[in-house]
Amino acid sequence: MSDAPHSSSSPSASTPSTGHTKGRGGKGAGGASLSDWMEGARPHTWANAFAPVVVGVGAAASHAPVSWGRAALALIVAWALIVGVNFANDYSDGIRGTDDDRSGPLRLTGSGLVPPKHVKYAAFAAFGVAGVAGVALSLLSAWWFILVGAVCILAAWFYTGGKKPYGYRGLGEVSVFIFFGLVAVLGTEYTQAGTLSWVGLACAVGIGSVSSAVNLANNLRDIPTDSATGKITLAVRLGDGRTRVVWQVLSAMPLVASVFISFWQPWALVSLIVAPLWVKASAPVRSGAQGKALIPVLGLTGKMMLAWAVLSALALGLGA
User: InterPro entries from the entry (predicted)?
Assistant: First the structure.
């Protein structure tokens, strides 16, 4: 969900844009290469899936033994969900023709490289993988996680899918905070330990906030086009200046979480060494960069998030 949709004022379906019909190596529509599909899966967003599971395992390790099998299943669920939502966004935005002026990564549907139904099938396949791994994880932990997983899949699809996608109503950052923060981190901790902790909650808030910051940076980049087409994102609501302030607060929350967690585990302060990455990621935001100049912010913030998650998990696990 972190790569926010670029929408029109109406979510009604329309013919996908054919303004960009050539793929890599000169391939036409329907001739997407493996690298095109890989870009369509948007690997730069995968940190949003890996980081919460990693730090969730770390939070659990601070008060319970680690089950690496359950950790692997949780990683598969999170990764498959984010790949699924990326393809679902590609499909839904593409059939509405809302990616025509996109300045971000390649869109398979909007570019005309791949028939829309094939992108939709790819989304469903990814959701299927998440579902199978999720059921297995639920059988090893708690049956009601099947219901949680079903809600996650529905939320992933209706982010930009359906007649009234909530991603077009300024709820993208809230959704990311809930599903890739609270649900992913605390869900991972619970499947490991069978209980939750204040440390886990702090980790969830930190990851959820910085993951939301990735989404917000994407929407900050798209304020001009979103405003012109009537799309109301949080960034459009706040305006350029206030969005930049909110982004800095959200992206810095993992550092705040480290200080909070240090009251239980002093070694958590080790994760503050990612602060220079935060400074580098925030530079374009603070300097007033616009458009494509904001694209590096997404990757840098993702790297900071994953580095913080790994360091925090190590500190919590080894310091237990």
Answer: MenA, UbiA_prenyltransferase, UbiA_sf, UBIAD1
Domains and CATH numbers, the chain: 32-318 (1.10.600)
DSSP string, 43-108: GGGTHHHHHHHHHHHHHHHTTS---HHHHHHHHHHHHHHHHHHHHHHHHHHHHHTTTTT--SS--T
Tell me how long the chain is.
Answer: 320
pLDDT of 28 higher than 70: no
- What are the pLDDT digits (tens) for 33-46? 888 899 999 998 99
Among 164, 137, 162, which residue's Cα sits nearest to residue 148?
Answer: 137
- Please report which confidence band the pLDDT of residue 25 belongs to, taking 50, 70 and 90 as the band edges: very low
When comparing pLDDT for 206 and 99, which is higher? 206
C-alpha–C-alpha distance, residues 22 and 32, integer Å: 9
